[in-house]
């Protein structure tokens, strides 16, 4: 018997039934539209389509409650999968900081690394990856938290190359680029987005002419670690994000393709739908943690954009 196949927006479909048994014709009910797709079917379909090792769905909400739900779901995933001596990376994101604050105290030898850093100093107390490491260490005193001494930005490509070729930097970056598990989010380019927040800082210190709309107009639908990508998953290049991002999308893609790694994207909300679709298509994750409302919108958008 053939296996059911998934068609976005129309539900699981099994083999066609055979002809009805002989007898008087039955009254035909009025034609009806397909029933809404059940949540487990959406999860299974997207997980299969994008080779996800897991897809966790939390209760839909808005505002701070959504952050709390996503953080709690990510914390549960972390505790359920982290192992002794794992190398775990945390990015700069409110969702990730909320996640760590939802972790109950435990004891396990492990190493924790930042995989992004703040461009805007004012964000340090809220969304810094280092703030997440401090929170984690307070919950797990056996955690070895590491600092990556990257500058806020690089003025030139040669400056970046010289820095990355330092022996101490090569050592720790080798560990960061080989984490067993990482937690990060994705961003958009609208009002209130990460790029909107850092625009003033970038204009003052990196590029006076930079406008995030340049990325959007060039086809960017989202960013991970400040690195932009298109809705089809194509990695986009731009000198501004390259000047201050230190784990790029190629590294996320490589690690996500390995079955022994947990590359966990935690994101939800209307503004994250297209960034999630682009990240799935780009292969920048192998675990997705989102809310039910966002997941349904992602499935619809993914089907509509084909």
TrEMBL record:
InterPro entries: NagB/RpiA_transferase-like, SorC_transcr_regulators, Sugar-bd_dom_put. Residues 1-33 are annotated as: Disordered. Keywords: DNA-binding, Transcription, Transcription regulation. It comes from the Bacteria. Residues 16-28 have a biased composition (Pro residues). Residues 41-297 form the Sugar-binding domain. Belongs to the SorC transcriptional regulatory family. This is Sugar-binding domain-containing protein. It comes from Actinomadura graeca. The lineage of its organism: Bacteria, Bacillati, Actinomycetota, Actinomycetes, Streptosporangiales.
């Amino acid at each position: 018997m053939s296996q059911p196949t998934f068609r976005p927006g129309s539900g699981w479909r099994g083999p066609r039934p055979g002809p009805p048994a002989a007898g008087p014709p039955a009254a035909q009910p009025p034609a009806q539209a397909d029933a809404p797709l059940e949540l487990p079917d959406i999860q299974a379909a997207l997980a299969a389509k994008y080779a996800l090792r897991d897809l966790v769905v939390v209760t839909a909400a808005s505002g701070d409650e959504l952050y709390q739900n996503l953080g709690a779901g990510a914390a549960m995933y972390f505790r359920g999968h982290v192992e002794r001596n794992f190398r775990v990376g945390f990015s700069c994101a409110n969702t990730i900081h909320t996640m760590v604050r939802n972790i109950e105290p435990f004891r396990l030898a492990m190493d924790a690394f930042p995989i992004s850093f703040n461009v805007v100093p004012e964000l340090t107390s809220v969304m810094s990856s280092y703030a997440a490491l401090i929170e984690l260490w307070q919950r797990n005193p056996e955690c070895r938290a590491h600092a990556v001494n990257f500058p806020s930005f690089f003025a030139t490509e040669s400056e970046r190359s010289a820095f990355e070729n330092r022996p101490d930097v090569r050592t720790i970056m080798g560990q960061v680029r080989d984490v067993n598990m990482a937690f990060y989010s994705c961003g958009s380019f609208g009002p209130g987005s990460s790029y909107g927040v850092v625009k003033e800082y970038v204009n003052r210190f990196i590029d006076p002419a930079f406008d995030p709309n340049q990325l959007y107009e060039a086809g960017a639908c989202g960013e991970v670690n400040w690195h932009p990508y298109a809705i089809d998953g194509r990695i986009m290049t731009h000198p501004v994000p390259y000047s201050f991002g230190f784990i790029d999308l190629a590294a996320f893609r490589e690690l996500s393709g390995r079955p022994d790694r947990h590359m966990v994207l935690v994101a939800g909300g209307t503004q994250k739908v297209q960034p999630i679709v682009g990240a799935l298509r780009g292969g920048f994750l192998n675990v997705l943690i989102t809310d039910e409302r966002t997941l349904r919108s992602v499935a619809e958008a993914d089907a509509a954009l084909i």
